[in-house]
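Sanity check. The docking grid for phenylalanine depends on where the pocket ends up, so I'm generating a full predicted complex first rather than guessing from homology. Inputs follow.
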Amino acid sequence: MKEQERGSFTSKFGVIAAAAGSAVGLGNIWRFPYVAGENGGGAFLLIYLFFILAIGIPVMLSEFTIGRKAQRNAFGSFRKLAPGSGWPLVGLMGIVAAFVILAFYSTIAGWTLEYIIKSVQDGFRGNDTAELFETFKSGTFKPLLWQFLFMVVTAWIVFAGVQKGIERYTKILMPILVVLILSMCVRAVTLDGAEKGLSFLFKPDFSKITFNVVLEALGQAAFSLSIGMGALITYGSYIRKNNNLSNTAIQVASTDTLIAILAGVMIFPAVFALGLDPKAGPGLVFEVLPKLFMKMPLGYYFSILFFVLLAVAALTSTVSVLEVVVAYFSEELNMSRGKATIISAASIWVFGILATLSFSDLSGVTIFGNTFFDLMDYISANVLLPLGALLIVIFLGWKLGKKVTQQEITNEGALRPKLFSVFFFIVKYIAPVAIVLVFLNSLGILKI
Ligand code: PHE
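Predicted complex below; grid placement will be based on this.
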């Protein structure tokens, strides 16, 4: 593809909507509560917030910088900025990560579609929601069908171009999602016995911190911010030269973090008040929320709207993941956008069947005690993304260098971001060392 033919986001708000659309998704509303629940709640939240600040925002800004400077896909960006080196392999690793993430993410995204239908049919009333969930996910056909449909819609939007579809709709839909979650928070915290849930989320119990909790917090921070796999390099390549990248990164990361915390405030009081188990795993929100809706005035309407918006939030994320692969195929392998979209979506879909059937026909197939789904979820968030993030900051700090980075971030000197030196110091020293320490610790090689 020639330079002029590359798309670009048309406005400042469009950039935020697309990038926040990528960041905000199932990671915030489905994954955050269940991972926090399994890892001790408050202590997890604290470490998570630390990682967002110390690693998440710097990596996000680094990815935007690489993408906008190079104006290429994740692989091509490294090749352009570091020709003849091994760095493009980092981009390639991102493309592999995109495959793994989309394969299992589309399973859960498919579940949201089933839950839209259940809401419309008023199917939660009078039923045991845990049982409903169990019956649905252990079926073969329906979960596969929904996953397929979700992939088709994702592919269709990517094919049409990110700008005209996603940019336009996320601007309207994201704010509605926030308002909705807020109302659900109000209901959740006014349930009898809600305090237990709030203290679970906000009172850190430091005895719960283990190396694994630290790694899970890093993985969740990376996953939730969409960093470490080139999604934001790819989106960065569509950002215009006059955009203030530092502000964009801060706004996107704050929105994302706010929504994750709100999701926690919505879920945990309900979990405790309704006598459920915070360690319920991937099914957590699908079992808890329907119960919450049944206890709300206008719960019927709330539940429909909520699952529709959850599906939309998931969609704006799946689009950004697929875009990584499609941009790579079309720019590096010279495919048309249509062909690139069909080939990548179809192969991810096939791979994704393994994830969906992990809850039914393949639930007995485990590797090191994990189903395919668990393995894909764990490896992408806790290995591939932190590793990608590590290599990205090393690239910026040690290969691209301070001068070039400063030029790009200051829009050739037009802007004066106050904390540039702090940012560069974090990127060059703090973030890499922190990520390496977390890795070594969790491998048991080093114990601090
Ligand atoms: N950040 C998305 C979410 O929280 C998931 C995602 C991960 C999207 C990595 C793109 C890249 O749902």
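Relevant for the grid: Residues 22-23, 25-28, 101, 223-224, 226, 229, 231, 317, 320-321 surround phenylalanine (CB under 6 Å).
Also worth noting: The chain is about 75% helix and 0% strand.
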